[in-house]
Write a structure and sequence with these properties.
With 664 residues, the protein is of the alpha+beta class.
């Protein structure tokens, strides 16, 4: 499939100098920016010093479960940890190192050079071996089980067009020619029993267990000068091979099946065997130069090299993720150091896929023999996600799949706070608490900056759940903006329960503002006992009531509620009388305050005269008439004026200047 139009593909991104992806200017206005699939980090540590000189430029890289193996044009092989620090320097070639590789366990490293030399070295013992070939070499591959296989096999190839397998026997080492005669051998990869090598006609696949060739992937049509460009070979699985030429990709699958040959010579059957069939599962072409390829989930990650417009020179190399149908999913342009001077052949893409954690530097491990082999290195931050390394002569950039933290950061940077918080909630313990807190803070600020205080309060209620720390920060933000009353109905008092000082701050803030006294009363009536220090709030209320300019009836009601919570029944009784609360009658009954009521009969009539009369009759046994009648016979208006209410006709009372403003 041809590469889709820009309108179908996602916009490319340019990796800036701080190793963050940003939309390229020519794509920025064409479509909405897509969330990046990868994040990048330039390797530091010792690397900048190792590659400082042009003669020490990087030429090849291999990645094992334990370290990075870097070959240079000066013939040096360096062992690096995943952050770029040099762990060890191996034996040096006299010519440029053209290929490096490791065994499956990461215990042996092999390198070959343009002068035909080969070094195989153990990382944990003194075992080393040097071999010489009479032609320039291009590729080397160790037996994946080299560390445990006594035959110590490896395969090399180069300009002579031969593929040699070297193995150790009783009489020493010997070379066997597996193939020759189809042009220079440009690349070799070994996985399980299968060895794949590339030459001028395509890629041959050889079964090392049966010493037979089992498959062939032919060169794409219209391939120009195949001897000039190194094909990329990657084993995705032990039975799946990815091959990339400069402008074409083929994915081959090996299928195995048992078979029995037809009977011959009577009833005897020939021996059973394994039949291998090769199928091209995927193939596509590109309009850019493929400098490297690796599997990425169910898609492919390609290191693309493009030429400049109208002879302007090379552009930044790009990492493109494409589907098996060659639909472009994402594209990032990388600011590789010195990219202006690099050709496609100067780049390499090395990848690592987890079988155990990739590790970071501990030089002591490489010098402690068996103990070092078992301990390896200290764990890296990578975890179990694949890593990709983009290699150029002066630079190495590491790429990895974005994780949940990165996804959240991207959503936040695009003001998609609610979506970011939902993602964080689903991720659970995989997300750092600081990430959740900072995301929530930014979301809250976005509401507050727009002065949408009700929206902010509703957001807190909807998203903060049982996050007590976040709720407290929310309260302080609203208090700072003098908008606490908007938040008060949403403040939780259980699951989570905030610190008592937070609730006290809310109440004190409401007490100080008369227009918020209704909100204050709501709080003291609805918040459960033990939420705050009642004695402290009662004291503040008492002091505030003394300030006549800020006095409201709600303050006294709140104080009555406070006294009730504190068990101060007598004070509650008198406040109910003063506030003329009809529930005073039930309060007397519930708390057995009949003796107190007997001394305050006249104020009870001010609360509700009819109810007071009926209530006195119903409770004559608790409040004897002998105590009640003398109080009612006093020459004093129940409302406070000096009158004998017993002799004043009821119909005349409304016209008299009684300060109680109701019928006495």
């Amino acid at each position: 499939a041809a590469r889709p139009d820009v309108g179908t593909a996602h916009g490319a991104h340019v990796l800036d100098s701080d190793v963050h992806a940003a939309p390229r200017e020519d794509e920025e206005d064409k479509e909405e920016e897509e969330e990046p699939r990868l994040k990048y980090q330039r390797l530091g540590g010792s690397l900048s010093d190792l590659l400082a000189s042009p003669t020490q430029a990087a030429s090849c890289l291999a990645v094992s479960d334990k370290l990075l193996v870097l070959g240079t044009r000066a013939g040096t092989v360096h062992l690096l940890d995943v952050k770029g620090y040099q762990v060890k320097r191996l034996q040096q070639h006299e010519a440029s190192v053209v290929d490096v590789c490791c065994d499956r366990k990461g215990e042996y490293v092999a390198s070959c050079a343009a002068d035909g030399s080969v070094w195989v070295q153990s990382l944990y013992t003194e075992e080393t071996a040097r071999f010489e070939y009479n032609s320039s070499l291009s590729a080397i591959a160790l037996d994946p089980e080299y560390a445990s296989n006594a035959s110590r096999r490896f395969v090399v190839g180069g300009e002579a067009g031969k593929v040699w397998m070297n193995n150790r026997g009783w009489l020493g080492t010997r070379d066997t020619v597996l193939h020759h005669g189809e042009g220079p051998v440009q690349n070799i990869k070994w996985c399980g029993n299968y060895i794949a090598w590339a030459n001028n006609v395509g890629v041959k696949i050889f079964d090392s267990s049966t010493s037979q060739r089992v498959g062939f992937v032919d060169l794409p049509d219209n391939s120009l000068h195949p001897e000039l460009y190194r094909p990329e070979i990657v084993w995705n699985t032990p039975n799946t091979l990815i091959v990339a030429w400069p402008h074409a990709v083929k994915v081959a699958t090996l299928h195995t099946s048992n078979y029995r040959n037809s009977p011959g010579g009577g009833s005897l059957l020939r021996p059973s065997g394994i039949q291998v069939a090769l199928e091209i599962a995927t193939s596509f072409t590109t309009d850019y130069h493929i400098a490297g390829i690796a599997p990425f989930e169910t898609d492919y990650l390609i290191l693309a090299h493009t030429g400049g417009n109208q002879g302007a020179g090379p552009e930044r190399p790009e990492i493109r993720i494409v589907s098996s149908l060659n639909w472009e999913i994402s594209s990032d342009a990388l600011p590789i150091r010195g990219y202006e001077h690099n050709a496609a052949s100067d780049y390499q893409l090395a990848s690592w896929h987890p079988s155990q954690p990739l590790l970071a530097g501990d030089k002591e491990s490489l010098t402690n023999g068996e103990a070092g082999r078992k301990r390896g290195f200290c764990s890296a931050e990578n975890g179990q996600e694949p890593l990709y390394f983009i290699v150029s002569p002066r630079d190495i950039v590491q790429a990895r799949k974005t994780d949940v933290e990165d996804n959240i950061a991207w959503l936040v940077s695009h003001d998609k706070f609610a979506e970011a918080l939902r993602m964080a909630d689903k991720a659970g313990e995989r997300i750092r608490k600081s990430t959740i807190d900072s995301t929530w803070d930014l979301y809250l600020q976005s509401f507050l900056e727009d002065e949408d205080y009700k929206g902010a309060a509703e957001m807190c209620s909807r998203l903060l759940s049982d996050n007590a720390a976040a709720w407290e920060r929310c309260v302080f933000e609203f208090a700072h903006r003098r908008k606490l009353p908007v938040l008060v109905p949403y403040v939780p008092t259980d699951q989570p329960r905030l610190r008592s000082g937070v609730y006290e701050m809310i109440l004190k803030s409401l007490i100080a503002r008369p227009e918020q006294h209704k909100a204050l009363l709501f709080c003291v009536q609805s918040w459960p006992k033990g939420t705050y220090n009642q004695a402290e709030i009662a004291y503040v209320l008492e002091e505030e009531i003394q300030q006549e300019e800020r006095y409201t009836m709600e303050l006294k009601e709140a104080l009555a509620e406070m006294y009730m919570l504190m068990g101060m029944k007598e004070k509650v009784f008198y406040l109910f009388l003063e506030l003329r609360k009809v529930q005073v009658f039930d309060f007397i009954e519930q708390n057995g305050l009949y003796s107190l009521a007997a001394k305050n009969v006249r104020p009870l009539f001010l609360v509700d005269a009819k109810k007071a009369m009926k209530w006195l009759v119903d409770h004559a046994s608790e409040l004897p008439p002998s105590e009640v009648v003398p109080q009612l016979a006093e020459k004093k208006c129940i409302g406070g004026r000096a009158e004998n209410t017993a002799t004043v006709p009821p119909q005349a009372l409304p016209n008299r200047s009684c300060s109680c403003s109701r019928i006495c």
